[in-house]
From TrEMBL:
Biological process terms in GO annotation: trehalose biosynthetic process
Family of the protein in this entry: Belongs to the glycosyltransferase 20 family.
A Pfam family per the record: Glyco_transf_20
SUPFAM superfamilies for the chain: UDP-Glycosyltransferase/glycogen phosphorylase (SSF53756)
Source species, domain of life: Bacteria
Protein name in UniProt: Trehalose-6-phosphate synthase
GO molecular function, one term: alpha,alpha-trehalose-phosphate synthase (UDP-forming) activity
Organism of this sequence: Acetobacter pomorum
Amino acid sequence: MARLVIVSNRVPAVRERAQPAGGLAVALRDAVQGQECLWFGWSGQQVPDDEGEDRRVSVDKVDNVTYATVDLTQSEYNGFYEGYSNGILWPLCHYRAGLMNYTRQDRHIYHAVNTMFARKLAPLLKSDDLIWVHDYHLFPLGLALRELGVKCRIGFFLHIPFPPWSLMRALPGAEKLMKSLRAYDVMGVQTEDDARNVNEGFSVVGVPARARVFPIGIDPESFQQQASAGLNNPEVQKLEKSLRGLPLIIGVDRMDYSKGLPERFRAYEVFLRKYPEYRGKVIYLQITPVSRGSVPEYKVLREELDGVVGHLNGTYGDFDWVPIRYLTHPVPRELLAPFFRLARAALVTPLRDGMNLVAKEYVAAQDEKDPGALILSRFAGAAPEMEDALLVNPHDADEVADALHKALSMSLSERQVRWKRLKPDVWRVTAGSWARSFITSLAEVRSA
Ligand code: GDG
């Protein structure tokens, strides 16, 4: 059996390796059981610029997985990670060209880091390896490997959306970037829309390749178990007690402008104005761990959210009730699942999202006896698979407010019917099946 080589910007930290906590690490453990695997990427460490020259790959093996990581220099971190990946590609791929902070220097550093990754990785490769590259940080890695003579099969999966060419072409060098994707034997994306957009780009630059759809999932079985088991956790009981029998609305999102949080809070204000009977009669818990805190747009967002939440709590709150319980620090995973279980409704309203795993986690955490209602943005990659959610346009505050009202006043039988229709897809397309189907497609391609 061919060895699998995973390349991603971040490699699970040492403490996460023996017991992966979620996401890619769990999906891959599932998919490559008993198979040899090499996982290559950034160590998460930054070193001074003058230490870049003689940096080494550090290697560490846990069971069947070998982890190989390199440090980034401070300038590489700034230019490659914060600058080009998160300050340019992220907004553009989320249809927000106006938020791009493009500089030529960041573009050079982005390409230089991809080349450096290729040079460090190439000597570790065997001729029949299957290489699976992840996400927008590493678009040009496949070509950089080909230029070093690597002949293995190489696949790429994009976790975030891909915009139409009319938008993508706002990126200086977009044609070149698009052409570089020809190096991949399999180009995977989350949704049909993304595939259509990638294919449009391919046809503009004359690349005959086609993108394929591999929607990502979660591990629903273990999430559901965590949700039930967690109900006995004293922290969870503390939350439950604090609800005083009132319905709970939950939101869980990394603090990112793609998640539509200011829009969501404004919709919640419309809800409190339009349906004043809910003032003091509903608890809204919003968990929003700070992310990418040193990228300028994220600082601006944090201040905006602080302002909107302060406005809501000051205006609509009372001495014994706050409209929003707002946390900007992460909550441990073993609490998150039972929190979802306790919630009567979830607000998942990104302006754009590759998939959005929270929507699937919320469904997985519910119990047939009393399931909650999911309010989901039409612009989440999960929406086409989840038509029995209350689908909304996150820009339309009235529509979101009405959906919230509908969720909170929905009969038990309607909640059960909707949940029963949502459940099969969440159980069918799991993290493990996603990884296996990508790897199988890559293995079926004839070597380049
Ligand atoms: C990217 C794409 C795509 C969040 N807060 C806490 C916490 N989380 C967990 C959630 C969920 C994960 O983080 C977030 O996943 P999402 O899919 O919602 O969003 P991104 O982070 O933007 O992920 C996305 C994904 O990649 C996979 O391809 O679906 O579209 O943008 O699992 O539960 N977990 C804990 N505490 C928190 O406070 N423990």
